[in-house]
Amino acid sequence: MSFIDDDRSASVSDIRISSVTSMRPEDELNNDEIKKLSEYFEKSREEIQKKVNSLLNFDFNAHVNRNMAKSASSNSLKTDNGKLNVKNYKPIDLETATNLRELTIGSIVHTFSNEWRRAKFTYRTGCDDLIYGLISEKNGSRGLILSVQAVLIKNLILMGYRDIHGNEVTDSEWRNKRKILKPNDVEKRDVLIRTIIEILWVAGEKNYACVVLNSGTNCFDFSAKDIGQKSKYFGDGITERLHIYEFTSLVKLEEFVKKNLSIFQKEDGCLLFLYSLILSRKVDRLKEDIQNQRLIGDMEECKISLFNLVLTGSAVPYLHNGSIVYDSEGQALEKPLIGIKNRNDVGILYWDPKEDDDKRTEVGSMLKTPKYPIWLVLMGKNQLAILFNTNIDLMNNWRLEQNFNLHFYSGLKKQEFECVIDVSTRDENDLIMSPHQVLKAKYSKFKLFDEEKDPEIYEIIKTKWPNCTISGDDGKDLMALL
Hints:
Blueprint: H1 6-12, H2 17-21, H3 31-57, H4 60-75, E1 89-91, H5 94-104, H6 114-118, H7 142-160, H8 172-178, H9 185-203, E2 209-214, E3 225-226, E4 229-230, E5 242-247, H10 250-259, H11 269-281, H12 283-290, H13 304-312, E6 323-326, E7 332-338, E8 347-350, H14 365-368, E9 374-378, E10 384-388, E11 403-409, E12 419-424, H15 429-432, H16 435-443, H17 456-462, E13 469-472, H18 475-480
Parallel strand pairs: 8-9
Antiparallel strand pairs: 1-5, 2-5, 3-4, 6-7, 9-10, 10-11, 11-12, 12-13
């Protein structure tokens, strides 16, 4: 590409170029020729200087980001060779959209609230002690975000147990220097990607997964007449616009999520993840899991089946171990109540103050004693938090359980500092307790004492460690953060 304009080239053509190329002595050029050459070189120098200045001031990063933003939608539809990925991509149909709506909010007429639509997976800012945490609002979507947060914390802790080459590190001093709960921006992005991939892949029994994207246009005509009647489906602006991408390769799934991570970090992000999770599990299998129940309740709160789906990959609506085939009176149930079959990586603790002591929801050991010391704690419909310890050996060494701490995370903006609960399970604690305290610890369930009850967060800890001694951050203050 020439830096010389056409009119400038025409003026230079008047010069006897042959006289220059023949390397005549300078005094053989007349004054006009010298003047024109001087003007030409001066204009060329100015033009080149402008080009250089333009390149020096050019913001390459902004240019790349703009192009990526413009092509993000089209790129997600393409493979490495630039052709449409027809094999893994398909538009949603009316039947699938209907199933998604009915499995979640239970209706094809009513739609998700604006609170759900705004929900997304973004890290909190402004609090150095909690930079590992995803932020949520106090609405129904909070349960989904905290469930994902629990798996994210597991992956973050495991990341801290490996060096830059991926090898396991046993040096506890190195682990402390690693600052497990203070990841940098790159680590936060990587662990979020890993968490999303893991949840979807486990739901698909580690051989299948789906990711959905909003195409921006309706994929079927739900206003058309079907068998002489108008469709009852009411559009919500997202479910009927989904493009479904299917994966049978974990590597391909990882590449796709890395490329499209931003869709989960903006409005509708949680809803797109929820739909991806349902389709990864597959509709028919999910219906079998939930046993005629739903993933989301009437108040748009997450139900136990959704917590289980995120944490275990199976959407069963119960927390007990295995299957229950008889009722409390010994009579055979019409259908068995299917619970958790295997010990899970992340656990669940449950406490509802409204339940009677003899009719409390049973939480089995598969969730109460998970592989890693991380629990999603449920205290009523929308009282949720996460308790965790960063030592992955806590659940496998009884000596470590004698004295330990639990980090508390609510996911809400009102928690602006790190909260830690100290727990002691040593038997000799009874020796330093007063007789009144010993009796209270043993017989409080019979309501013989009129003293104020423990906060729910303490009660839920004691479902795992009965008669433990709890100190550290005040339980009432912690409950105020929920």
